[in-house]
Amino acid sequence: MSLSAPTTATNTVTLHARSVRKTFVSGRIESTVLHDLTLDVQAGALTLISGPSGCGKSTLLAILSGLQSADSGQVHALGHDLSGLSARALESFRLQHTGFVFQGFNLFPALTALEQVELPLSYMGLAKDVVRKRAVDSLEEVGLGPRMRLLPSELSGGEKQRVAIARALAKEPELLFADEPTSALDAANGQIVIDILHRIARTHGTTVLCVSHDPRLVHHADRVLAMEDGRILSDHVPPSPLATATEPR
Ligand code: ADP
Ligand code: MG
């Protein structure tokens, strides 16, 4: 079980953001969503970014993953300065090194689970047999082997999110980003998704950066960054569920 699994977290910083600022302008109103935010993320760890709705979590994740650009500041990921990359190089970086799991799954309605997972692997230029093997292995890893020929409309919400995770995982990314991956799911399916993310960090050594306000995720994270109003308020290692259960009140 996950509690006794050895951690693969290291002290190597794989993602580093410095003085990241983001302001959105809407009409005449300018609002700064990220206030010169600085953080380091360690390789192989599951880092959780928590905080109330609207505090800037999704914007931060989008900037750290190269989906959006910051107005100022730097993001270094796997030794690359993301702001220094051309649009094409950034797209290639994201394709080769990152996976992204979205709150709303972002699956293609007309593709089977297997085809969804195979699609980015084909874009990566992998050979057909490698694409098939990686896709099948990833779907089996998230428990969807028997359902890989089904369309999204034939899958439950929890299964759709597991397809999305398999799609990200099959790329064998060093960095896996997940934005509120459990918020559209019931408790049981949310727990399955949390366990999978936890296992990915443990067994694959993948750096997982997850945004969530789901309190169940806290105990599965190696580190929790609490955000409020575009700033990081606290940075701590959460107690394990076992420690919490045995601690006197
Ligand atoms: P969270 O994920 O913590 O709920 P977000 O990062 O989505 O927060 O949003 C933070 C703030 O930035 C919110 O007030 C939101 O309305 C605003 N915002 C996010 N994206 C945009 C955008 N593209 N244009 C204008 N405002 C935005
Ligand atoms: Mg959000």
TrEMBL record:
Asked whether the keyword Mitochondrion is assigned, the reply is: no
What Pfam family is a match for this entry? Answer: ABC_tran
Q: Name one GO molecular function term.
A: ATP binding
Q: Which UniProt keywords apply?
A: ATP-binding, Nucleotide-binding, Transport
**Domain ABC transporter span(s) in chain numbering:** 15-247
* UniProt cross-references to SUPFAM superfamilies, sorted A to Z: P-loop containing nucleoside triphosphate hydrolases (SSF52540)
Question: What is this protein's record name?
Answer: ABC transporter ATP-binding protein
